[in-house]
Amino acid sequence: MMSKESTSKIKKLIRNPIFLGTLIGFFAAVSQALLFSAGGPEAYGFCVACHIRDLINDCINLITGKTVLAVAPISKNAVFPILTILGVMIGAFISAKLNKEFKIKTSSIKMYLIYFLGGVLVLIVALLLGGCPYRTALRFGNGDMIAFIGILSMALGVFVGVKIILKRMEKQMGEDK
User: Fold this and answer.
1) CA 177, CA 172: separation in Å to the nearest integer?
2) Which of 14, 33, 105, 129 has its CA 20 to 30 A from that of 148?
3) Per-domain boundaries in the chain
C-alpha cells in the first residue's frame, strides 16, 4: 500500500502542467510512431480535423456500402473507424467533472449558431491547410508559402480568440460585482 504522503505527491505531480504536457507529448509521439508504422500518414497521430473527417467519411462509406469518400489508409484498413475525437470529448468531460469545472453554458440560438459555424469553418480551413499545425509547420519547412499564411492565420486566430475571451471575462467579472 502507498502512504498518504506518496499519494499526495502523486496527486500533486498529476496536476502539474509541465508533467502532464510531457506525458501527453510522449504518448502522442509513441502513438504517432505506431500509427505511421501501421500505414498512417505523417502527422496523423493526433489530428482532430483529420480524425473527424475520416470518422465521418468512413461512416458514410459504411452506410452507403460504397467507397466514395476518401479516408486515410490507416482508417481504411482499420476494423473500427478512428474514434479519437470521441475519446477527446469523453476525456474532457470526465476531467471537467473530476475537477469541478463542468458547467452548462446557456446562450441564445444566435450564439449557438455562431459557435457551430465557427467550428465548421475551423475544420474546413484545417483540412484545406493539411489538417493540423504540425503538418502545416512541416509544409512550411519545405518552402510552402501557403503553409506560412496558414501559420500566421492560426496565430492571429488564437490572438483574436484570447482577446475576445478576456473581454467577455472582464465584462462578466464587472457584472458579478
Assistant:
1) 9
2) 33
3) 1-103, 105-177
**3-state secondary structure string across 15-50:** CCHHHHHHHHHHHHHHHHHHHHHCCCCCCCCCCHHH
Query: Which tens digit of pLDDT belongs to each residue from 120-130?
Result: 888 887 777 66
CA distance 154 to 57: 25
Query: Alpha-carbon torsion 164, 48, 93, 6, what sign?
Result: negative
- Read off the pLDDT of residues 36-94 as tens digits, 9 standing for 90 and up: 665 555 556 667 777 788 888 888 888 898 878 888 777 777 766 677 778 878 888 88
* Helices H / strands E in the chain, number of each: 8, 0
Q: How far apart are CA 150 and CA 133, in angstroms?
A: 8
What does the longest C-alpha to C-alpha distance in the chain come to? 59
- C-alpha–C-alpha distance, residues 81 and 134, integer Å: 23
Which three cell numbers, joined as nine digits, stand for 75?
Answer: 482508417
Task: Label residues 15-48 b or e (16+ Cβ within 10 Å = b).
Answer: eeeeeeeeeeeeeeeeebeebeeeebbebbbbbe
Q: Which residue has 507529448 as its cell numbers?
A: 25
Cα(103)–Cα(96) distance, rounded to whole angstroms? 9
Q: What is the pTM of this model?
A: 0.57
